Amino acid sequence: MLTHERRLWASGYERIAGLDEAGRGCLAGPVVAAAAILPPNVEIDAVEDSKSISEDERLAARAEIEAQAVATAIGACSPDEIDDLNILHAALTAMRRAAADCDPAPDFVLVDGNHWSRNLVDAPWPHETIVKGDAKSQSIAAASILAKTERDAIMRRLHEEHPEYGWESNVGYPTQQHYAALSEHGATPHHRQSFTLFRS
After folding, report:
1. Which helix (H) or strand (E) holds 75?
2. Which of 8, 35, 50, 154 could form a disulfide with 13 if both were Cys (CB 3.0 to 4.6 A apart)?
3. Domain 3-154 class?
4. In angstroms, rounded to a whole number, what is the distance separating the alpha carbons of residues 44 and 4?
5. Could you state, in order of their start, the residue ranges of all structural domains in the chain?
């Protein structure tokens, strides 16, 4: 999980930020990204791909990441921004916002996926994209955990306003319950109007 980071540390980079996002496939809520800069050569046993561990494990890992990290930050794009930019560009924008909010600033970014350089070529950091990076890079896996836990917390707060959609459990993803609630109650301001919200 530190192969990419060690290569970059050996090349002289000191503050390597992993970037990842959560919520691209949701019908409602923001897309949330996180950046995590971890100390050189520190292995955090709790850090794994956020999709492969339980919610309790993610929350425990988040606490450990925040305790040990050089810097962490969250970025997001609202449903309106998603509708305006499209979900890919919104996710990349959220990741860029997260990286920009790191203090101290990164001097290199590792990005989950393969689209960064196609969209944000004017980003101020040298970068590398890693497909399935949340399973290959500790920094990206840490960002994945931060993004997932942050977004889940946002959706559970929104659930208190709109309990009929089941966001406390589906956190905005397309489930049978979510589609049924949309058919019965219509869309909220938190839904992404550019997505297919109603089944034919």
Report:
1. strand 71-77
2. 8
3. alpha beta
4. 15
5. 3-154
80-130 pLDDT, tens digit each: 999 999 999 999 999 999 999 999 999 999 999 887 655 554 678 999 999
What separation in angstroms does the CA of 124 have from each of 13, 54, 127? 14, 35, 9
For residues 65 and 142, is the Cβ–Cβ distance under 8 A? yes
The token pair at 68 is: 């040990």
Residue pointed to by tokens 């999709």: 51
Question: Contact at 8 Å (CB) between 85 and 77?
Answer: yes
DSSP secondary structure letters along 15-62: -EEEEEEE-TT-SBS-EEEEEEE--TT---TT---GGGS-HHHHHHHH
**Chain-centre distance for alpha carbon 29:** 13
